[in-house]
Amino acid sequence: MPVPADTLVIIPAYNEEAALPAVLAALRTRFPDFDIVVVDDGSKDRTSEAARLGGAAVVTLPFNLGVGGALRTGFRYAVRQGYLRAVQLDADGQHEAEEVDALLAALDGGADLVIGSRFASGAGEYEVGRSRRSAMRFMQQGVRLLSGQTFTDTSSGFRAFGPDALALFAAQYPVDFLSDSVEALLAALAAGLIVVEVPVQMNERAGGVPSTRALKLVYHYLRLLVVMTATAPRRRKAVVR
In what order do the strands lie in the sheet with 35-41? Predict the structure, then answer.
């Protein structure tokens, strides 16, 4: 069996046949030596076929688990195949292949988990609706209160993972919407991992359908607030050494 490259790109995808080919082509051009796995999260279209045609390995889930479940599958795949680091990248064209370099440079600098931030200084413009931006800021404050650290983009889905982060998330990764980003960040901090942000440019989605809207989004933020509050004592205990 061939030895894989040390870096794996993990792309969770649900009904993304329209945008996925361009995403894979850009990655192949920029990083010809990187391996790519697309976790098809129970798509009803030809996402798996588009992934294979684009040269990616494919893990097909029998039904839709959500982003968190798809990512946990990707992390387990990475650990079992012996990868030393991984990049999480969306299938919808929001994340630029060129920005992966900044995430990997931060890993090389000693970070265990790197978050590509849309809102850090130097990231450029990224339009977010008023209600969603307010909810994001509320979550940022919650993370700061629980962890003592400040992050500008706690819900970013553009991240890079070193070996310790891969091992942690392969064993335990939150599967609910938003928990896959915010709660995972808290879990990494509670485990003593070094987490940093780097500014990145992100685009509007190039295809597919957003995962949630309006009232559903409010529900998910409220649910996450309850989860964060309920687990706060356990997380504070975890960071005490």
Answer: 57-61, 35-41, 7-13, 85-88, 159-161, 113-117, 195-199
Q: State the amino acid at position 142 in one-letter form.
A: G
Residue 2 lies in a domain: no
pLDDT, one tens digit for every residue, the chain (241 residues): 344 579 999 999 999 999 999 999 999 999 999 999 999 999 999 999 999 999 999 999 999 999 999 999 999 999 999 999 999 999 999 999 999 999 999 999 999 999 999 988 887 676 666 666 777 777 788 888 888 899 999 989 999 999 999 999 999 998 875 567 888 999 999 999 999 999 999 886 554 445 445 555 555 555 656 655 655 544 444 443 3
Number of domains in the chain: 1
For residue 121, the enclosing domain spans 7-239
Kindly report the pTM of this predicted structure.
Answer: 0.84
Identify whether 1 is part of a domain: no
Q: Which residues pair with 195 in a beta bridge?
A: 113
- 134 occurs within a structural domain: yes
Residue among 98, 97, 104 nearest 23 (CA)? 97
- Among residues 8, 53, 58, 5, which one has the least CA distance to residue 161? 8
- Domain containing residue 192: CATH number: 3.90.550.10
